Amino acid sequence: MGQGTVDVVRRAGGVRGLWGLCVFFWGVALGMAGSTAGAAERVYIDITQPGFLKLPIAVPDFKMQGGEEPSLARQMAAVVRDDLDLSGYFKVLDPAGFLESPQQMGVLPSEIRFDSWKAVGAEFLVRAQYEARGGGLNAEFRLFDVVSQKMVVGKAYEARVVDARAVAHRIANEIIAALTGEPGIFDTRIAFVQAEGGSKEIYVMDVDGQNLAALTRDGSTALSPAWSPDGTQLAYVSYVEGQPKIYIANVLSGSRRSVAGYPGINITPAWHPSGGRLAVTLSKDGTPDIYLMDTQGSVLKTLVSGWAIEVSPSWSPDGSKIAYVSNESGNPHIYVLDVAGGNKRRLTFEGKYNTSPAWSPKGDWIAFSSMTGGRHNIYVIRPDGSGLRAVTHGEGDNESPTWSPDGRLLAFSSTREGASAIWAAVVNGEGIRRLTRLGGAQSQPSWSPRANR
Amino acid sequence: MNHRVTAAVVWCCVLLTLTAMTACSKKAVPGQAAYPSAVTPTGPGAGGRYTPGGPIDEATWQKLGLRTEEERQRFLKDMDEFQNDDIYFEFDSFVLMDEAKKILDDKVTFLRRYPAVKVTIEGHCDERGTNDYNLALGERRANAAWQYLVNSGIEPSRLNMISYGEERPIALGHDEASWAKNRRAHFVVEF
Questions:
Q1: How many Cβ atoms from other residues are within 10 Å of residue B160's Cβ?
Q2: Short-list A65, A24, A135, A104, CA closest to B2
Q3: Which domains does chain B have, with CATH numbers?
Q4: Is any Cβ of chain B less than 8 angstroms from the Cβ of A221?
Q5: What is the pTM of this model?
Q6: Residues of B in contact with A415 (CB under 8 A)
Q7: Structural domains in chain A?
Q8: Average pLDDT value for residue range A391-407
Q9: Contact partners, residue A34, CB within 8 Å, separation at least 6
């Protein structure tokens, strides 16, 4: 089994974060015997099968080389564990039970004592080391299949110490990619509404709740953040100029502009999957209807109009359809519009209050919020109206679902522990966990697309 | 721990402080009391706008055509009543109930008596339901009141509308008594 570097995979860095925190690093694939392929030869986790068993995985603390930044040994491993746990694919083993000392044991395939990992129940092992020097950080990891005693994937990274968390997220992404054939989503971000002190502002955080940053600081009411498909802009609604208008902010620079301020309400922006256009709700012609608008605010087309309320559009990933809310039946329900043909059909018939549709990135589900017995829960349904099932089950109010870019997780607001917070769960309802632990109340999450690097 | 870790910790503290400062500065913004000032003055004549609770200067009295102290006292009383009487709606409905129509008839009387007065109609919802749908529902509630006033002969140019959805509750409880108070159209005088 090879141990050195093969195949240099240059990963262009990207500017990240609202304060211009830069992540410039690159990864190198660590060699594998007879193969330089980055992904696994076989798919360990078939993500098309809903009922798979979680894989037991061990992530011991990283091995420190050199002697600088000793806290990273634990911190980076914790980030990887946390990410793998969030993915829902793994049973992440408690390091307290490990038989080997993370600072003593080796990192190379020849140094791994697979028996002692088998003994603690691990089927996979993530072994990593790092060296910090003068603000720079070198890190490498290897993923081992404990059962077959083989290395699955390995990569080395050169970055800065301040980007240690980002490197750990990248490692988690590579592990998911190696085992499922599709990269993880741990370098994505979530925008949400933070209510505190009588105002609502748009905030952005990493998917694990870290790197929190305020996008607006208006002391007004800001709502409904929506990421552009390239992840560089957020459309949102604000009362900062009196009436609810739609704004677009550049996430990196923080600069923003008003794009729709027609008479009445200008709400619920949703970017077309190809960018450049948005579906929005305007009441300029009397009732709240859904329009297609360019990013300068010019209306290109009326998508849905009628005497009823039409609101909350969500695009199918191919841009051919929108799911939206209409109360034309007397109560709010989810409908689907064929944008080219103009024909619409009602999707939900259960319950009396179904809102906040969110079309999954793979097109296979539409998530929404349903109120029954005074409680909101998250449901998913197939775009043809079949397969309705609950994601949450009556613990508090659960609203405003948003999909992770891999279509596997849903983030939503929940009051299950008191004040509204952002939570995430696997689409089958498992692995629910809280993402925000802030004062005030958090609502209306919007999950960013994958980072553009 | 070396100085770089310390630097990272310090940097985190700066971020936390910034966040905390944001939180603190937000506290200075009044919550419920803020909403009338959030309405953008529209149309000509918006300059001499009356601030609720504030004094009315002589020029404004002249504009309103109210000369005697008796007229002015009555106007203040009528205006209080006008702004304090909200109309209420059932859950997920913007249908005007009989009680609401009676109150709207009183609004018509007031607006006829004081033709220089303009009104912003605010549509509000209770906290149940989603923010987005409630913004649309609040708009329909304001519109239902607007339509009734216009049908009763009030000039549309005197009437503005704004929906606050569930964003400006007047009662903060999580029970039907609070929700019922929040499902309302509220009327704010401008002149």
A1: 23
A2: A135
A3: 56-190 (3.30.1330.60)
A4: yes
A5: 0.85
A6: none
A7: 5-180 (3.40.50.10070), 189-447 (2.120.10.30)
A8: 96
A9: none
